[in-house]
Design brief:
The protein is of the alpha+beta class. The chain has a domain at 179-404: Alpha-Beta Plaits, CATH 3.30.70.2520. The protein is 28% helix and 23% strand. It is built from 13 helices and 20 strands. The strands form five sheets. Strands 15-11-13-12-18-19-17-20 form an eight-stranded antiparallel sheet. Strands 5, 6, 7, 8, 9 and 10 form a six-stranded antiparallel sheet that branches. Strands 1-2 form a two-stranded antiparallel ribbon. Strand 5 and strand 6 form a beta hairpin. The longest helix is centred in the last third of the chain and has 19 residues, at 429-447. It is globular. The termini are far apart. InterPro entries: FAD-bd_PCMH, FAD-bd_PCMH-like_sf, FAD-bd_PCMH_sub2, FAD-linked_Oxidoreductases_BP, Oxid_FAD_bind_N. Keywords: FAD, Flavoprotein, Oxidoreductase.
Length: 448
């Protein structure tokens, strides 16, 4: 069976072979990969030389206890479906990424983060246990107390340790899902870093939108949006269907320098000059782009690349400036430019991306070799700062950059289910593995 199960970046679009979960048993090496809702930006959700196992069909929430805040659901359930059920009972996800259209299994496999990493860490910290189906026909319960090594490798393991069938997570009790937001604009990147320590100490959530095209004294200007669940926020409405939709991909990139310069000036100009507090709907704070179905089509026929990095706090101000200036010098325009802090709350995941410091996210339309060269230049800046790249936002980083970002990747490879493989893992880790094997053989021959 062929289905067009693309990633959100849409750089490589083609029909992909699919199969059922039962086919996992006895499958050949690298034959399969679970597929959630395709919100990974790159090739971590693809296995183009094998088959994908769609996890959405037939998925359901199995149990929810309003007294304890524990919920059990199939891996293919969307976070939006969980929120619809639990919000009327006064609960919310402890960690929610920038879209609610992520599956539960995908949130675990990518160990996603939100706007409150400095308080709560990653999604993996909410996971109580999960059921993992293996290609040797075993079903294994994993938790901090049962099969702990497999539990930790699966959180952030990008679907390579086995297929998550269902999971139990802990929810957060909140007075309202709606948010008391404090927003203000800042005139430069220095203004942001001067303010962020006090903001993060005071608020559960914080995120900054950056005008990536601003230059000179205004370089790095933006809007800071801090928030907390409102004591007087009232009942929250369930996730609404998208108000707008992009029905087809335009023949050109509509999010170019000209359109973004006008948009950025308007967005920045409308933001309050000094801190203004108001109650805002939870959806507009946490998942604003969910209101536009298929918004990624606006980048045109080539799709988009997202570059998300994390780098140490000690040099974050300088590193952020270098990244923005690098993109500017190459004429690139980023629509979704986001800056936020990662705290020191440890993740249980083996290959979790967040680590203490700051993370900058940039989106670029795919303009071919020039875009790839710019992304390589951004990598070099991150590398020199001692930072790392986000694998589930990536579709082009080198194997060497992956190893620098995740020097412990061999621990995941050692526990990876042999029947499971992704294009990302094949492109990065498996390019390093043959070199490693060759070196080991050479050393063995020398010893002999």
């Amino acid at each position: 069976m062929q289905s067009e199960l693309n990633s959100w970046g849409r750089v490589v679009r083609c029909p992909r072979a699919t199969t059922g979960l039962a086919s996992l048993t006895g499958s050949a090496a690298g034959a399969m990969l679970p597929y959630g809702n395709g919100r990974s930006y790159g090739d971590s959700c693809h296995n183009d030389s094998g088959r994908l196992v769609p996890m959405r069909p037939g998925s359901a929430i199995r149990a929810f206890d309003p007294d304890t805040g524990l919920l059990t659901a199939d891996a293919g359930v969307l976070l939006s479906e969980i929120l619809t059920l639990v919000m009327p009972h006064g609960y919310f996800l402890e960690v929610t990424p920038g879209t609610a259209q992520v599956t539960l299994g995908g949130a675990i496999a990518n160990d996603v983060h939100g706007k409150n990493h400095h308080r709560r860490g990653t999604f993996g910290r909410s996971v109580i246990s999960f059921e993992l189906f293996m290609s040797d026909d075993r079903r294994v319960t994993c938790s901090p107390d049962q099969n702990r090594q497999l539990f930790e490798a699966t959180i952030g393991g990008m679907g390579l340790t086995g297929v998550i069938e269902a999971a139990t997570i802990r929810l957060m009790k909140v007075p309202s899902a709606n948010v008391r937001q404090t927003a203000f604009r800042f005139g430069s990147i220095d203004d942001y870093f001067d303010a962020i320590d006090a903001i993060d100490a005071k608020h559960e959530y914080s995120v900054a939108w950056i005008d990536q095209l601003a230059r000179g004294a205004n370089l790095g200007r933006g809007v800071l949006m801090a928030g907390d669940h409102a004591e007087d926020g009232g009942p929250a409405k369930p996730p609404a269907p998208p108000r707008l939709a992009i029905p087809f991909s335009p023949p050109v990139n509509l999010l170019n320098r000209l359109t973004l310069k006008a948009f950025n000036a308007l967005y920045f100009g409308r933001a309050p000059k000094s801190a203004a507090t108001a109650i805002v709907p939870w959806g507009s704070y946490f998942h604003p782009l969910d209101a536009i179905r298929d918004w990624n089509r606006l980048y045109g026929p080539g799709g988009l690349f997202q570059h998300q990095s994390v780098y140490p706090a000690e040099t974050a101000r300088e590193t952020t400036i270098r990244l923005i200036e690098c993109a500017q010098s190459r004429g690139a325009a980023s629509f979704l430019t986001v800056l936020k802090r990662f705290g020191d709350v440890p993740s249980p995941g083996l290959l979790s991306f967040p680590r203490p410091g700051f993370t900058l996210t940039l989106d670029f339309a795919n303009s071919g070799p020039a875009t790839l060269k710019m992304l390589d230049a951004l990598d070099e800046i991150v590398l020199s700062a001692g930072g790392a790249l986000n694998p589930y936002k990536d579709q082009r980083m080198s194997a060497e950059m992956f190893e620098t970002s995740f020097p412990n990747w061999r621990e995941l490879e050692a526990i990876r289910d042999p029947a499971l493989m992704s294009d990302f893992w094949r492109r990065t880790a498996m390019q390093l593995k043959p070199v490693e094997d060759a070196e080991a053989q050479a050393q063995a021959a020398k010893s002999a």
